[in-house]
């Protein structure tokens, strides 16, 4: 599972601006400001401007949820041919990536859940993915004992990093 505000929540007051704070209240206030700014800035084409949760499943699908307002999924996202092992929103919430045992990574619109494209290059099940803080690069770890670095904007493999003796779990 992944939450579209996860990166903002995880980094709290520590962002690229590298501000200094005098006390915990300032840190808390700045973190809350970042969180509210992210929530208010979610895309106009989103289903609604709230936190979203995505879950991946053994049935090869992803489900888009509104965890605060509804107990039923908003959307079922299909396309993978193997179980979905890991899902992750990009830090800017524009993209959602899903890694699957079908040896592919699918990129989805992070606001609407619409399928965008597939990244292929691994020759075994993909275990995990991780975004760069600027949302430009995606790292994938695989059973094929490689790490791969993908450029999401140009939809291409940037670096293939072999050399591990066994599976890469990130």
Overall strand count? 12
CATH structural fold name: Methylamine Dehydrogenase, Chain H
Which CATH first-tier class would you pick?
A: Mainly Beta
The CATH architecture is: 7 Propeller
What profile does the largest beta sheet have?
A: 4 strands, antiparallel
Characterize the overall form: globular
| Secondary-structure element series | EHHEEEEEEEEEEE
| Structural class computed from helices and strand pairing | mainly beta
CATH homologous superfamily caption? YVTN repeat-like/Quinoprotein amine dehydrogenase
Overall mean confidence score, pLDDT: 90
Strand order of the largest sheet: 1-2-3-4
DSSP strand content? 35-45%
* Number of discrete helical segments: 2
Distance between the termini: 16 Å
Range of helix content = 10-25%
Low-confidence segments, given as residue ranges, are none
Rg from C-alpha positions? Answer: 17 Å
Number of domain units: 1
Overview features:
four-stranded antiparallel sheet, 2 helices, globular, Methylamine Dehydrogenase, Chain H, 12 strands, 170 residues, mainly beta
Q: Can you walk me through this structure?
A:
The protein has 170 residues and is mainly beta. The chain has a single domain, classed as YVTN repeat-like/Quinoprotein amine dehydrogenase (Methylamine Dehydrogenase, Chain H). The chain is built from two helices and twelve strands; from the N terminus they run βααβββββββββββ. The strands form three sheets. Strands 1-2-3-4 form a four-stranded antiparallel β-sheet, with no helix packed on it. It has a four-stranded antiparallel β-sheet with strand order 5-6-7-8, with no helix packed on it. Strand 11 and strand 12 form a beta hairpin. The longest helix is centred in the first third of the chain and has 17 residues. It is globular, with a radius of gyration of 17 Å.
